[in-house]
Every structure is written in C-alpha cells, then in structure tokens.
Amino acid sequence: MPPLLFYLLALITLGFGFMVVTGRNPVSCALSLAACFVGLAALFLSLDAYFIGVIQILVYAGAVMVLFLFIIMLLDIKAEEGKKLSFAPIISGVLIAVLLVLQIITVVSSSAIAKKSSTDTPLALTEAAGKIGRAAALPTITNDLKEGTLPDAKLIGFTLFDQYGFHLQVVGLLLLVGTIGVVVLSKRERSSAP
Amino acid sequence: MITLGHYLVVSGMLFALGLAGVIARRNIIIVYMCLEMMLSAANLALVGFSRFHLVNSLPDYTAQSLVFFTITVAAAEVAVGLAIIVALFRTKQSVDVESVTKLQG
C-alpha cells in the first residue's frame, strides 16, 4: 500500500473524528462520524480485511448512524447556542488524550512487533491452500486460495462457526435481549395503574 | 513503509479523540458518538494485529472474529443506549449530562 494513501485515509479518519468532538451542531457531528467510519472502513480494506470493512460501512455508517440521526430528529435537539463553555472538563479531556497518545507512541516506538510491515508478512495464498487445517474440508476455500484470491468472508465464517459457535449463539441471544429491552424502554408508561 | 506501528498510532489517536470527547462534551448524544468512535478505534488495532500476525501465511482470523463480535455488541449497545436517552429526554426535556444529577447524593 502506498504510504501517501495511508496518510490520506488516516487524515480523513482523524480529521472527521476531530470534527465530531468539536462540532456544535449534533447533525453535523453525526455526519462527520459517518465520514470518519467510512475512512476507517477504507483503512480496514488496506489491511486486507474486506469483510470487516464492508460490515463497518453497512452496520456503522449505515444502520448506527441512521439511528443516531433519527434520534436527533425525534428529540429535535438544537445546537448548543449561547451556553457557557466550562473549561475544567475540556482541559482535563485534552490533557488525558494527549497523555494517552504520548504513552502509545512511546510504547509503539520501543516495541519490535510494531516494526513489522507488509513486506515482512506477505500473504502467500497459493501456499496457504494446503495448510488451512479443517477449513480444507470446504473446497470453495481451497479453490479460492489456489486461484490467488483471499476468501476472507469464508474464512471468518468458518472460524466463527467452527470454533465460536456457542459464542455466536450467545450474541444472537444478546441481540434478542437488546431488541426486547429497547421496546420495553421506549414504551410510554401509563399515567395511572389500572 | 507503512508498519503495524502506524496503524496502532492512528488507532490510539482515534481512541484518545473519543476519550477527550466523552470527558469534555455535555451533549449526551455526542458523548455516545464518541463512545462508538472508541470502539471502532479498538477494532482498528485488532485488525492491524490480525494482518501482521500471520497464521499459515494468512491473516489471523481469530482477531477478525472478535471484531465481528465487537461490532454486533456495539450495535446492540447503541440501540439500548439511544432508547435510554429517549426515556431520559421524556422525563428531563434535556440531553445535557449536567441535568441528570439525581444519583450524585
């Protein structure tokens, strides 16, 4: 991946992220967050994680952001006009964020694993076709690997259903509980008990 | 040359931006957006580690499965959280975090 493209995508992601934090109008904050997620999805694509990039756009930039915009519209929130800024939380927030970034940069610059680049870890797709273990039982994965394409959605699906089947069912239950919880929470309470 | 460290620093900066927003902002909906940003930043670090830690010269798909779970849990969390915000707005007519101080003692 060309370095310039990486810096451009990182700039898009962080720039729109900054606009989310500093924006006064909630609608423009939500749209900036959608743009930030699109930049992040492009970063995922640059890491050969095509499936994750696509669901990042579908779930975050699509569903979650529409939900946010819908709630902003429903509650009819005005921009924070004329409110005094309190400086203590802003200063502490900036200070903690700067300290965190400095700490991460220090740790990353002194670690050996962080110096790996994609030339150190090249994907060898045709050679991997013979070494994928139990996934070799599915001919579609081996065929894709032999043709030199990365079947990452198929491999993630295989990992999920082969090793994490129980966890997947727990997450399904979590979504059901979440749906019921939303219905219960947003139901209007009767003014007097019958 | 783009290394894993570059992705980790971008992920850390995005996480720090979200953290600053959670601490500094008073609009509860924007606090929620910043929380989503922090979750996505953690996903970026996971996908970066997945790409640069090869298993049989393929990316480590255990990490990407974890990202899948994170995105699912985040979607459920947003739905429940926004329902709580709507219920809060009905009682307080405000989305300012400083209007909710009943548990402060």
Kindly state the percentage of residues in helix of chain A.
over 70%
What is the CATH level 1 assignment of chain B? Mainly Alpha
Q: What is the N-to-C order of secondary-structure elements of chain A (H for helix, E for strand)?
A: HHHHHHHH
Radius of gyration of chain A: 23 Å
What's this model, at a glance?
With 194 residues, chain A is an all-alpha fold. Helix content of chain A is 71%, strand content 0%. Chain A has a domain at 1-78: Up-down Bundle (Four Helix Bundle (Hemerythrin (Met), subunit A)).
What does this structure look like?
The termini of chain A are far apart. With 194 residues, chain A is mainly alpha-helical. In chain A, 71% of the residues lie in helices and 0% in strands. Chain A has a domain at 1-78: Up-down Bundle (Four Helix Bundle (Hemerythrin (Met), subunit A)). Chain A has eight helices and no strands. In chain A, helix 2 runs antiparallel to helix 3 and helix 7 (152-163) packs across helix 8. The model of chain A has no long low-confidence stretch (mean pLDDT 88). With 105 residues, chain B is an all-alpha fold. Chain B has one domain (4-97): Helix Hairpins (Orthogonal Bundle), CATH 1.10.287.3510. Chain B starts with a helix and ends in a 13-residue tail after the last helix.
Main features:
heterodimer, A: 194 residues, mainly alpha, Four Helix Bundle (Hemerythrin (Met), subunit A), 8 helices, extended, B: 105 residues, Helix Hairpins, 3 helices
Secondary-structure map:
The complex is a heterodimer of chains A (194) and B (105).
Chain A: H1 3-22, H2 26-46, H3 50-75, H4 87-109, H5 125-128, H6 139-147, H7 152-163, H8 165-186
Helix pairs in contact in A: 1-2, 2-3, 7-8
Chain B: H1 4-24, H2 28-52, H3 61-92
Helix pairs in contact in B: 1-2, 2-3
